[in-house]
Write a structure and sequence with these properties.
Layout (H helix, E strand, L loop, with lengths): L15 E7 L2 E15 L2 E8 L4 E6 L3 E6 L4 E3 L2 H19 L6 H4 L10 H12 L6 H14 L8 H10 L4 H9 L6 H15 L7 H16 L10
Antiparallel strand pairs: 1-2, 1-5, 2-3, 3-4, 5-6
């Protein structure tokens, strides 16, 4: 039913135009970077191709250049792209660093969130599929968690923020969560869809990736006989 793409662990490099060398010809593709790594002196990129909706691992030797459409930064030397990629991952890790948590939260059993696990997976995936996982998006998800789970009401903003920062659902996780929505009531489906739209519009406009996955959510709900009224029709 779906073409699946594993969510990149670094979502900042998702809107790229790459010129690739194939059979002594240069072809152009729009891609997202799922991972970059070095093996010896060789540099490898795991790329998701939007045209074919498939992923491929390529040696940097087969990449002529890459343009990041978000930052308008041009990379003729792919090693510089690798350096920016590692730098961004390091910054993200430092941002996620948190101080000591209260004893109640240290002992918190995440199984208590099982009733909203799929919802949080979907909301977090949508929030992170565009460039910025903002404080506004965090707050929307936190409020949803507290509204729909009694145990979440006891958690501090600091704890929920750390939890959401560490949560990195893949596209497989997203589609698995979608497949579990058939147990929702129309009211529950409408509440979830409304929060997805709120997250997507929190930056002022809906990004192409957000629009794509929102369409997938609405399609799945309709297949389950659920038709949430969220003002999009």
């Amino acid at each position: 039913m779906y073409d699946k793409m594993e969510q990149s662990s670094n979502p900042d490099f998702y809107n790229l135009v790459a010129h690739l060398i194939y059979n002594n010809k240069i072809t152009e593709e729009t891609v997202a970077i799922k991972k970059i790594w070095k093996k010896g002196d060789n540099l490898f990129l795991d790329l998701y191709f939007y045209r074919t909706k498939k992923s491929h691992v390529l040696s940097s030797a087969f990449i002529y250049d890459i343009l990041d459409l978000n930052t308008e930064k041009y990379y003729r030397d792919i090693n510089k792209l690798y350096q920016d990629y590692i730098s961004q991952k390091t910054q993200s890790s430092e941002t996620r660093a948190e101080g000591d948590l209260p004893a109640l939260e240290k002992a918190f059993d995440f199984k208590s969130l099982d009733n909203i696990k799929d919802d949080v997976t979907i909301l977090t995936f949508i929030a992170k599929c565009s460039r910025f996982f903002s404080a506004v998006k965090e707050q929307v998800i936190a409020e949803y968690m507290r509204k729909h789970n009694d145990k979440a009401e006891l958690l501090s903003n600091k704890f929920i923020k750390a939890y959401l920062q560490e949560l990195s659902p893949s596209e497989d996780d997203f589609y698995q969560a979608l497949s579990n929505l058939n147990s929702k009531t129309p009211e529950q489906a409408e509440a979830l869809a409304a929060e997805v739209i709120k997250i997507s519009l929190s930056d002022g406009n809906m990004q192409p990736s957000e629009r794509l996955y929102l369409a997938e959510i609405m399609q799945s709900l309709r297949e389950f006989g659920l038709y949430p009224d969220v003002g999009l029709e």
